[in-house]
Amino acid sequence: MTVYGGYGPRLLGHRGHNQVQNVIALLRERPTTRRAAIQLFDAEDLAGEHKEIPCTTALQFLVREGRLHLIVTMRSNDAYIGLPHDVFCFTMLQEIVARAIDYEMGTYRHFVGSMHLYDRDRANEESLIKERFQLRIEMPPMPAGNPWPAIDALLAAEAKIRAGDQFDANDLGLDPYWCDLIRLLQIFPSRNEGYIEALANSMSFRRYRLYISARIERTPDAS
User: Fold this and answer.
1) pLDDT grade, residue 223 (50/70/90)?
2) For the chain, which residues make up each domain, given as ranges?
3) Which of 95, 193, 202, 221 has a 20 to 30 Å separation from 53 between CA atoms?
């Protein structure tokens, strides 16, 4: 199935242009530029030929006083289905770009034209809040240096996980930060409580345990 509004192709290969790498190259050459912007919503999206189009219109990266800031503009945002995932994904992208150009992380600003929460999602939204994952516990910082080799290794590991392969992330020669992310990917589809526990005990960042414990509680027919 083709997802017309998928962000990946628009970020990394839109009309033959890798917008993320172009932003990185531009910021390396001209750190104070105001042109480091990524366009996700296209003129073609207004034609009405596809129902599924991006909710995000644009991302702008700005380097100021030694920090990389990111401004994201949304035409529409679902407070339950979209917002938690959008903030996570875009701040991860911000950190990737910051590491690639060797700057510290700055502020993140998220502007929304229409924020909404559907009645059918109210119970799920209340349950999400009660999970306590929204506590102000920061992820560990991404390791310094060019992140792209590690990202390539993580994507290769994710493909193996989808294929059902089991392996030890520590054997990949990556920083513990990236090994933990791979272990989280291994945990997500698993129904084996013992396997999940073993992965949890291998985590370098112990505060991931909050998510993992909840995952075990929700695991049906664990064996």
Assistant:
1) very low
2) 7-130, 148-217
3) 95
